[in-house]
Amino acid sequence: MVRNYRNNAFASRLFLSIIVEYSRTPQFMTFLSLIKSGIITYDWRGYTSKTGKYSGKNHGNAWRIKPNAKAELFGEIEKVEL
C-alpha cells in the first residue's frame, strides 16, 4: 500500500510521506482458506472503456484482502517510509 498526501493541500504544505508495505512468500493454502471465508475477494473489472481518457484500455481485475488479514497470508510485512 502506498499513501500519497500530494492531493491534500494541508498535508502537502507540511510534508510528503510515502509508506510502502513490502511482503513476500504468501502461503497458498492460507490464500485458498481466506477466499473460502470471504476475507480475500476477487473484483471482476474486466471491461474496456469506450470513450474518454482511458478509451480502449482494459482496467484489469483485482484480488482484495482485508487489511487485518495480510499478516496471516504473508507472515511478515515490512513497512518502509520513503
TrEMBL record:
Domain of life: Bacteria
InterPro entries in the record: MvaI_BcnI (IPR029127), MvaI_BcnI_rec (IPR043005)
Nuclease found in the keyword field: yes
Keywords: Endonuclease, Hydrolase, Nuclease
Transmembrane segments: none
A Gene Ontology molecular function term of the record: endonuclease activity
Domain MvaI/BcnI restriction endonuclease residues, every copy: 12-74
Gene3D superfamilies the UniProt entry points to: MvaI/BcnI restriction endonuclease, recognition domain (3.30.70.3570)
Name recorded for this polypeptide: MvaI/BcnI family restriction endonuclease
Organism: Anthropogastromicrobium aceti
Organism phylogeny: Bacteria, Bacillati, Bacillota, Clostridia, Lachnospirales
